[in-house]
Amino acid sequence: MTHFVASGALTCLAPEDISRRRLILVLGVMAIMPDLDVIGFWYGISYADSFGHRGFSHSILFALAMGITVPFVAFRNIRRFTQTWRLLAALVFLATISHGILDAFTNGGLGVGFLIPFDDTRYFAPWRPIAVSPLSVAAFFNGSGLHILVNEAFWVGLPVGAFVAASFFIRMWLRRRRSE
User: Fold this and answer.
1) Closest-CA residue to 108 (of 78, 85, 139)
2) pTM of the model
3) Helix, strand or coil for residue 112?
4) How many domains does the chain have?
């Protein structure tokens, strides 16, 4: 949920003629897409494997591939490789990579494979204040869920809210300057 909400803040950077609903949905889906790697557990892929949890799907290369391909599908009405299309590609990249970045700030797991497939090293941020969420929905609702939501609201929600508010006021100020 937090990944979806955090990526929605990126819509503040999009051109005003882009559908906000579509953009929020696309960026939100791309922000949670990396966690589809948990399906690998069902197929015997270990957590520490390159294709395990927080592996390739959390990498810079994966985010770059999504940034390049998703605008072709989700924004077919935008002329390819125009300034608007490139900005949308950058926003999709940022939404996708934001997942791994936020995960690197969590206090659990094995780290994030940002450089997979070139390097299998897993990385954490030097400061890890975000409480890690359990991998199962049942575990989330059987105890630590409220603590995790409060923790994420503080460490992710407040900065995202500040970013959105600052973006809003900057856009208002720029509009006012243009109209003068």
Assistant:
1) 139
2) 0.89
3) strand
4) 1
